[in-house]
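Crash report, auto-generated. Payload:
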Amino acid sequence: MILTWLLLILLIGGVLAWLFAAWSRWIATLAVLLDLVLALQLWLAHPLISVANSPAGWIAEEQYRWIPLLGASLHLAVDGFSLVMVILTLFVGLLCVWISWHDPSTREKTGFFHFHLLWLIAGIAGVFMAMDLLLFYFFWELMLIPMFFLISIWGGETRRKASLKFFLFTQFSGLFMLIAILALYIFHGQQTGQYSFDYPVLLGTSLSRPVAGWLLAGFLLAFLVKLPALPFHSWLPDAYTQSPTGGVALLAGLMSKTAAYGMLRFALPLFPEAARMFAPVMIVLAVAGILYGAKLAYAQTDLKRLIAFSSFSHMGFILLGIFSMQELAYQGVILEMVAHAISISGLFFVAGMLRVRLGHTRLDEMGGFWEYMPRMGGAAMVFVMASLGLPGLGNFIAEFLILAGAYQVHVVWAVLASLGLIASMIYSLVILQKVFHGKSKQSLGKADMKPLEALVMACLILAIVWIGIFPQRIVRSVQPVVQQLKQVAQVSPSDAGQIGLGHDKISLK
Amino acid sequence: MWHQHLLPALFPQIILTGAAVVGILLIALKRSHAVISLFTLLAFILALASLGKIYGATSVDGLFVVDGLGIFVEGLILIAAFFITIFSYPYFSQAAVEREEYHVLLLLATLGATSMVISNHFISFFLSLEILSVSLYTLIAYPKKATASVEAGVKYLMLAAVSSAILVFGFGLIYVETGQLSLSGLNTLSASGGEGGLWLTVGIGLVIAGLGFKLALVPFHLWTPDVYAGAPAPTSAFVATVSKGSVFVFLWRLFDSVGILHQAILVIFAVIAIASMLIGNWLALLQQQIKRLLAYSSIAHLGYLIVAFVASGETGLHAAVFYLVAYFISMLGAFGIIGYLSEPGENGQQERLSLASYTGLFWQKPGLAVLLSLIMLSLAGIPLTAGFMGKFYILLSGVYSTQWLLVIVLILSSVIGLFYYLRVVIQLFSKPQAHITYLASPYAVSTGLAFLILFILLIWFGVAPGRLIDQIEQMVHVLKG
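Recovered output after restart:
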């Protein structure tokens, strides 16, 4: 029941927050905090099991009837990987509630704002827990709606355009995934007579090469748009810059990770052979994205846009890691998913706090703010350093592992990608230089962080340092998934049907 | 012939006919809007209850066939008519015109629609169609001082009459070739592998055109926006839901029987579906008036239904019926809200037509705005709403029958659709520049309750559709013969 409760607490909390608008901040805090405690408890209770006792390798699993006639069920399950992502979602979600506490743009319709925030968190958490493909798609689309409202009601000046563009891009690409899911469902049903959307059931489907290629293309289209990867990123700058602060951290930090999660959990294990076929193209896209994103980030004159493009550039590393198909790279990808979520949230929070104080985020009108807000400057420095890959912080170890993994198979591309690290150093330092250093152009008086904002930043800093120093804790809990993916990458074409057994092989170790 | 045991199968029709007669007598006795409204609601409930008395599928003299599909859609139509009556009462209560006859006409139109879905013969179909259409002419032009309504009524009269003529001519040609007027007869003929001659082809083409007019499929869609915009909101709801749903069921029955020329028919319908989806959504994109927008969007939705029709088979039928349910809920809610927000004017109710007049509805009437947004999301096929499950089911049937082209076009056009539905949603939630006031309706309780039920159904069928799908699977099937 624990997984259902994780979702229900958020959903009910959202409705309560809407009904009792005056208390919505407290209700939201309480709901997310309770969820976080529950999820952490679950994680700590399963510290070192490489694969849990249950046969499928889940730490917790629940299955309820949904649409029995079509073979769809409410199948929620978590393994180490899912659980880490759920905890991350709740952690960042909690901080989003807190950082929006003093945000004047959320003063209006506060209850409705927290309703959407909580439902968004629930949608993202649902994506990480759904093990039924229809349910996965359901949550995948579900998280769009609150995000759409967050942008279109509480967003910046051009929020209408931004929210429309965001919704259209993601929905359109998502529909192709739905078609791929349906086709997979029907092919599997025709082969075995068992019509089901259940992920473990569908894992063993053997498909002809062209069919698998088309289906994977459907899945990848959805994931590449959401990530976003190179040619599909045009919604990103608008949506990221126009979102309210609480929304953008979830958008950049976690919704982009759902795409990476989808590739690792569904796209690769379901279509291993096709994935190997697509890998070269994806790697080129990834490296091009890293470099192009870095160049775009450097060229921006707006702080939020700069951070948005830096995020786009970092997504290239994730894509590179996934399609390098190396054990090291997979570990790096998962670490990067966590570390990037935290560092990008930190940067967007800084931008949001500046926006509250200045009313804009234009870089050319900033400068010398260290004088007025030394504590915020210090916090910003930590995240800038994390973003440029300073050893000791989470992002460094993650990107290092990805590049090390990629180097084993694609030397040239790995070398090119590491140029991105240098580029990221340049644009990241620009943030610090233009905002906090130099001569101050305006007097802000006492504008440093309020206690709650300081608490949020402290939590994030602690998290990113902890990942940088003890990455082992996360790596260990995702190890079963990494092993499974490794087998996917190595399996010979004739064994393609056997991947479903991957879990059992690991459990023998 | 008098078959007493067949009587229960036709109870709904008998009740509705009786109710129409008694209704006229009631009006003759004393004009009371409240009484006749309540009476109409009662009649619909009785007719609905009588559906439960039907055991098993029966064929009535070859004219009607009361099977699962028929009973299910009859129920759907009666429920929709029930909601429309609830919406009509406040809408007409402030009007200066004689408003009591509106309800009698509503009863008659519903009679036509319910008998159409069980028609198994060209004659019974044509009679039902005429009962429905003739009532609709008046229902559309009911606010007789409003020029737009009268114009819409006349337009509908002209086009419906022409399309009826085309239909009859088509039936005639089919009769010339086959000597059959009943669908079961056509079915036996096609089962025996009869080769279709020229006149049969022409006849079927004419029938497709005639039914296309009624369903407002591209290229026979030109009347829709004017009629939707001109008719009073409850009537628009009736035209959008009941009238189209019932014709669609007959379309299904007809082409389920006519197996002859099957491939050619499918191609024609595939083309019609593609054109309806793309052109309907594309034109809706350009609209600034909410009723015209809904009109074009309903053209697109009929296009989606035709995808399920082309997919055919059990899955297609179930998908289409599920989609009808979702579509009915959404359209009823949308027109209900438009009617509810109308204000009394000189020539009957003044409706808010332009999208701009709905700006910032959320800040004054949050409940209505949330419901209307959910309806828009449902029409767009976004999760949490019945529309999503409907679209999912149609896509499933399309993929199942490997209609890849139709499936891809459905996706493309639904993204176009999403754009204008979201525009409405954004409009509802954006801050109005000038202050717009929404009058409180004095009849908020009954309408509010109806909205609440629609809201619950919309979410329920979107989140947990298992029960409904089970029900459709068990119940909906076509009886040939």
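Post-recovery validation: The interface with chain B takes residues 65-70, 112, 134, 137-138, 141-142, 144-145, 148-149, 152-153, 160, 163-164, 167-168, 171-172, 175-176, 178-179, 182-183, 185-186 of chain A (CB under 8 Å).
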